Amino acid sequence: MSQEAAATTGSARPAGALPDINAETYPFDLVEHLLNQAAFFDMFSSPEPGKSGSIIRDSSGRITGIQISEELRRFDIVTQLSPESKTISDVTVNSGRVRVAEDTAALRAINVLGERIGRFRSRWMMVPQDFAWRPGGPEPAATPLDGSQPQRFVMLDGNCEFGDGGDGFRGYGTGVTYPPSANGTSELHVAAVGTILSGFGRFAGHEGTYVYGGTLSADGGFKGSLLIRVMDPGSELRTDGSLPEIEAHPPAEHGVTYLLLRGQKRDKYEHTAYSFGPDGQVNGLDVSQQLRIFHLDCTAGRRRGVRSSYEIGPVIGQMTAKIRFNLFNPGAPGTNEAPIPFASYNTYTFFDGSGRRIGSFDADGNEGQTFNMTLSGAPGQRALRFGGVGPILNGTGEFRGIRGLMTDNSVVGVAPHALATCYILRIADPEGRYRVAFGN
């Protein structure tokens, strides 16, 4: 759904005053703390050696899906503001024009591919554009793959295993393909959102969301980022301690850089506002949040099992979003079997250490799913899981010409509207503009 199309959807505005989405059912700080009780598994996915994707065809021989067998590796994304870039500008001095070089910050990342920690198997099937999410429902009608236009697909029979296979989950999801002309390269890009249907081992009883962003080929399968966020109030999957040093391997993808960002509100006084369509009906929310450095790590060692850790760093920018999701008439119950669709249009703006703007870009989150969520320790507090994906566009300043994919794996409270968002940006980067070599 485009930004313009999303802006015209909605339902009748509730009679009387609108409920205050920023009011505190529980204190804002408590809700934010509960949202942060999560385990993150940031991994790089590539076809499992010796088990390349098995193509699924219809009776006419056209490709309608791919049986995916993924190898999951530890993936370390270290995002930072680098002071090494220079901006050249013309200024007027004594009625003459001179060239001035000025040091500016630039967003960069180190990407390190690590050891194997798991695998994920599922069946990705193309579906009609209006196909509804229904795990356990009837098989989707055979739909041929068409690489010339964006196209939706579903991820069926998902089974994710960590370590020796004793810990993991079963899941289901939906996604979208993007043709080469939409992402600035010659590859077919894909992004997707999935949900945990049931966990086993240390994942038993946990709810969570996962998002994909990468490329898809009929002969090889998927290659790219997989980020799993699991709510973990009992700290069964996460640790505040250190994890074993990563076993560094050669780069996973040439000409691609991944950036990782954290989003959260500055404090409880940074309020969210309702948005309205041209007819005066509520159609979503206008949200603002800080962008921070975020570092994730995970492992699945034999002795101590699957574990994850995270660290929130300094503020480096601001993100505003137009969320097209009507709290009053969402159109679905928000369960795993019937999630609430949503769309967003995000603008990311970054600043250097002196507060100077270094650039911005947008992300059109045109494929998203929303799930109701419980917060342990806060009965009656409404909370939601969001997973969204879409292309990156409209770069300015240091990000002029940027192309790539955004994946959003978020949890939020409603009244108070606290946020704990996580963005992975997959950037086409053949010249290494956004990359710092490992070891520098």
Q: Which bin fits the share of residues in helices?
A: under 10%
Distance between the termini: 41 Å
Low-confidence stretches: 1-15, 87-91
Specify Rg, calculated over alpha carbons: 22 Å
The backbone outline, from C-alpha atoms, is: globular
Mean pLDDT: 88
Number of domains: 1
Look at the helices and sheets and give the structural class: mainly beta
Tally of extended strands? 20
Count, helices: 3
Spatial order of the strands in the main sheet? Answer: 1-3-4-5-6-7-8-9
Largest sheet: 8 strands, antiparallel, barrel
Beta-strand content: over 45%
Order of helices and strands: HHEEEEEEHEEEEEEEEEEEEEE
Written overview of the protein:
By secondary structure, the chain is mainly beta. It has one domain (3-80, 106-428). The protein contains 3 helices and 20 strands. The protein has helices at 3-7, 28-35, 180-183; strands at 38-47, 54-57, 63-93, 96-126, 151-162, 167-178, 189-200, 208-217, 221-231, 256-264, 273-276, 282-301, 305-324, 340-341, 343-351, 357-365, 367-373, 382-397, 404-414, 419-428. An 8-stranded antiparallel β-barrel has the order 1-3-4-5-6-7-8-9. A hairpin with an 8-residue loop joins strand 17 (367-373) and strand 18 (382-397). The chain starts with a helix and ends in a 12-residue tail after the last strand. Mean pLDDT is 88; it is low at 1-15 and 87-91.
